[in-house]
């Protein structure tokens, strides 16, 4: 990746607008949203977001509903944080 957006990440498209806190929040969420995640069926890091709340494994083809920005549901996220 070009170094120019290494710090700004995906929030680099906003330039200097909207404030750092909001841009950083967007960056964190989008990194999670656009990244690869573990498949609940085959356990490979191949799950990508198809659309808001729709996730698909590129390896085994499993398609499932979860959170809009995360392939885990709110319940699963809170279960992990309670450990
Ligand atoms: Zn899979």
Fold and architecture overview:
It contains two helices and four strands. It has a single domain (7-81), classed as N-terminal domain of TfIIb. The protein has helices at 20-34, 74-81; strands spanning 37-38, 45-51, 54-57, 63-65. 10% of the residues are buried. The longest helix is centred in the first third of the chain and has 15 residues, at 20-34. The chain starts with 19 loop residues before the first helix and ends with a helix. The chain is an alpha+beta fold and 83 residues long. A four-stranded antiparallel beta sheet has the order 1-2-3-4, with no helix packed on it. The protein is globular. The model has no long low-confidence stretch (mean pLDDT 88). Zinc ion binds next to loops.
Count of β-strands: 4
Percentage of residues in helical conformation: 25-40%
Shape-level CATH architecture: Single Sheet
What separation lies between the terminal Cα atoms? 36 Å
How big is the Rg?
Answer: 15 Å
**Bound ligands, each once:** zinc ion
By secondary-structure content and strand pairing, the structural class works out as alpha+beta
Instruction: State the helix count.
Output: 2
Which CATH class applies here? Mainly Beta
CATH fold label:
N-terminal domain of TfIIb
Uncertain regions: pLDDT < 50 for 5+ in a row?
none
Q: Could you report the average pLDDT, rounded to the nearest whole number?
A: 88
The geometry reads as globular
Strand content: 15-25%
Instruction: Please give the order of strands in the largest beta sheet.
Output: 1-2-3-4
**Major sheet characteristics:** 4 strands, antiparallel
Order of helices and strands: HEEEEH
């Amino acid at each position: 990746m070009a170094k120019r957006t290494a710090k700004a990440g995906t929030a680099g498209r906003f330039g200097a607008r909207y404030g750092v806190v909001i841009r950083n929040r967007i960056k964190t969420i989008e990194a999670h949203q656009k990244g690869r995640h573990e498949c609940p069926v085959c356990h490979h890091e191949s799950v990508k977001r198809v659309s808001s709340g729709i996730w698909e494994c590129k390896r085994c083809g499993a398609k499932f509903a979860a959170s809009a920005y995360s392939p885990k549901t709110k319940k699963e996220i809170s279960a992990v944080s309670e450990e």
